[in-house]
Design a protein that fits this description.
alpha+beta, two-stranded antiparallel sheet, Arc Repressor Mutant, subunit A
């Protein structure tokens, strides 16, 4: 509790002594730390999925299982550099994988990762 040393509103408060150190008070419990990491992952995934094109890419890959980058460009009506940019972001998040066949890249989703994002959302957002 705080006691005011004077009636002056600008006076500094006198803090009662505590048996708990400041460092002990602000240290998160391991379960809190793990939960906050989950929330960070979830926030990053949501930021990534907030883009309509990336959602469309994932939707097409789920629908067709695997697509060549040119097929994605045609279906999305976007240039190869634009589609490759979105695929790169999805790959870096682990939501999409690439299979190389000669000079051609074929993309597919990583179902386990998509399920993980959904489960993380369910666990952190819903009681």
């Amino acid at each position: 509790m705080n006691d005011w040393t004077t009636n002056n509103a600008l006076a500094t408060p006198r803090v009662a002594e505590s048996t708990v150190s400041v460092s002990e008070e602000i240290q998160p419990k391991p379960s809190q730390d793990t939960a906050s990491l989950g929330l960070k992952d979830l926030a990053n995934s949501f930021r990534l999925l907030a883009d309509e094109t990336r959602l469309r890419v994932l939707n097409l890959l789920v629908e067709f299982d695997e697509l060549h980058v040119r097929a994605l460009c045609e279906l999305l009506g976007q240039s190869q550099p634009a589609v490759s940019h979105h695929l790169g972001l999805l790959r870096s998040a682990g939501l999409v994988r690439v299979r190389r066949d000669g000079k051609h890249n074929f993309y597919s989703t990583v179902p386990e990762k998509l399920e993980s994002v959904i489960e993380l959302a369910r666990h952190n957002v819903m009681p």
